[in-house]
Amino acid sequence: MMELKPLNSVPPIKPPPGHNLFPTLNPPEKTLTFHKFLVLFLTFIAYAAFHASRKPPSIVKSVLGPEIKALNGTDSTIVATGWAPFEGASGPHRLGELDLAFLLAYSIGMYFAGHIGDNIDLRIFLTVGMLGSGVLVIAFGLGYFLDVHWLGFFLIVQILCGLFQSIGWPCVVAVMGNWFGKAKRGLIMGVWNSNTSIGNIIGSLAASSVLSFGWGWSFVLPGLFILVVAALVYLFLVVSPDHIGLELTSKEIEMNVEGVALVGSETGEVEEEGFVEPEMEGAGAIGFLQAWRLPGVAPFAFCLFFSKLVAYTFLYWLPFYLRQTVFDIGGVIGGVLAGVTSDIIEARGVTSIVFLLLSIPSLLFYRVYGSVSMFTNIALMLISGALVNGPYSLITTAVSADLGTQSLIKGNSRALATVSAIIDGTGSVGAALGPLLAGYISTRGWNSVFVMLVLSIFIASLFLIPIVKNEIKGKLNEGKWLWISAFKR
To answer: Can you name one GO molecular function term for this protein (predicted)?
Structure first.
């Protein structure tokens, strides 16, 4: 029987301080199931806090930027009622540059954060990322209280904040990989990945609730929130079961299902409680360029580039355009629905492309009929959020994990972090460009922005065509999806 090891390669680590303060949290008083739920909760709220702290810039755009008023029913003029240096005709461009600075730093930092996290205590690293993010978010808000009008100050804060924020995703994914197996991966990850949308909603509500007291408070409140959650993570997050004397007794059997290694029991059934495959003896960390050449990595990475461009355009500009959080609620539903669907049909690519193609008419319908009534606005926004965020959620979680543990790399645990960084890092570049392009294009009207979004979704779908063809061919060879053959005849 092969000895099971935690995902990360760091030496044995003592339990977190909270377990010394509350000894009843330790085994045998608390079982493995209890700790799995605790880890699920802590990683969920941790990443939700990251996203909540990203929300204030989009909430205060209408205060920082200029107000556009129509004159004589035809011409319009920009009234400089915003906050220097974001007032005037160049205001939207400068706000877009803030978004670009943050997201480029975030995407670059992502590639480094995964490697660093593999070599140090993930709990400490995650706490550092949260503390840095909280302090820098509050620092941005201090620009209001200290009457700062220097663009460089806000750009520097956003760049540093992006670097600290990039720590969050690799850490929480690695911890989840230590505690949870691969059975029902789409469902589990779909539900868990709703932390992004929940965080957006919390951030929107928190920032909006204090905006009338001054836009600086819209940053202070979410900043304090992530600092509080950071304390909980530091005190109670257990990175791996063996850190508190827990272990799994099931044998590891490599089962190749569609090129993905799954953890099974002695009976061959897939276990829900299991580790990601341990690194094979003598296997080194997979190289960056090698990971790019793995089957499916590049298509899904570029698909996520355009999918995340659309999602983050809404994340950063939708409140400026609509001031609603319904899109994020739809995102929660879409993430779960995409995960469950992909588990049922056992085809991540097919699920993703169907959601993407359906999102095109949903966005067009929203643009045309969204202003008819409040009911149609909410309904169409809910549908659009579900269809746009469904593939985004699926690719960044279940797909990344599938590709990072495929049989071709023999379960090399370090490949999971590398592949996840490539896919999400590439998607984050698209996320950086989306809001920037929206800032420039919105000056020509919102119809132009929606054309950009629809075109991006269409291009994202094109990258999945080879994946979808292979999935369909594989299912037919396995004797599944026979209705497709009947339909062709």
So the answer is: transmembrane transporter activity
Question: Topology of domain 13-68+82-246, per CATH?
Answer: Growth Hormone; Chain: A; (1.20.1250)
Phi, psi (5° rounding) for residue 139?
A: -60, -40
What backbone torsions phi and psi does residue 364 show, to the nearest 5 degrees? -65, -45
| N-terminal to C-terminal alpha carbon distance within the chain | 49
- Range 287-481: architecture per CATH: Up-down Bundle (1.20)
pLDDT (tens digit per residue) in 81-105: 678 888 877 787 788 788 888 888 9
H or E element at residue 355? helix 348-369
Instruction: Give the CA distances from residue 19 to residues 25, 238, 261, in Å, rounded to whole numbers and listed in that order.
Output: 6, 9, 34
Q: State the sign of the Cα–Cα–Cα–Cα dihedral 45, 187, 123, 196.
A: negative
Q: Cα 457 vs. chain centroid, distance in angstroms?
A: 18
pLDDT tens, residue by residue, 408-426: 554 444 556 677 777 888 8
Both tokens of 54, joined, read 């990203």
Whole-number pLDDT of residue 489: 54
Instruction: Determine which helix (DSSP H) or strand (DSSP E) holds 65, and give its type and residue range.
Output: none
| Number of neighbours of residue 277 by Cβ within 10 angstroms | 26
Give the Cα-Cα-Cα angle 247, 253, 259 (nearest 5 degrees).
120
Q: Are 46 and 134 in contact (CB under 8 A)?
A: no
Parts of the chain belonging to CATH 1.20.1250.20: 13-68+82-246, 287-481
Instruction: Give φ, ψ of 49 to 5 degrees.
Output: -65, -40
Instruction: Give the angle 339-342-347 at the CA atoms, nearest 5°.
Output: 150
Cα angle 128, 54, 150; round to 5: 95
Cα 355 to Cα 57, 152, 287: the distances in Å are 29, 40, 32
Are 275 and 178 in contact, with CB atoms under 8 Å apart? Answer: yes
Q: Give the total residue count for the chain.
A: 489
d(CA 321, CA 327): 12
Of 373, 376, 389, the residue nearest 330 (C-alpha): 389
Map tokens 């922005």 to a residue: 449
* Closest by Cα among 434, 471, 439 to 296: 471
Determine if the pTM surpasses 0.90: no
Would you state the pLDDT for residue 427? 86
110-131 per-residue burial string, b: 16 or more CB within 10 A, e: under 16: bbebbeebbeebbbbbbbbbbb
Please answer whether residues 436 and 97 qualify as being in contact, where contact means their C-beta atoms are separated by less than 8 angstroms. yes
Average pLDDT, the chain: 78
239 and 175 in contact (C-beta within 8 Å)? yes
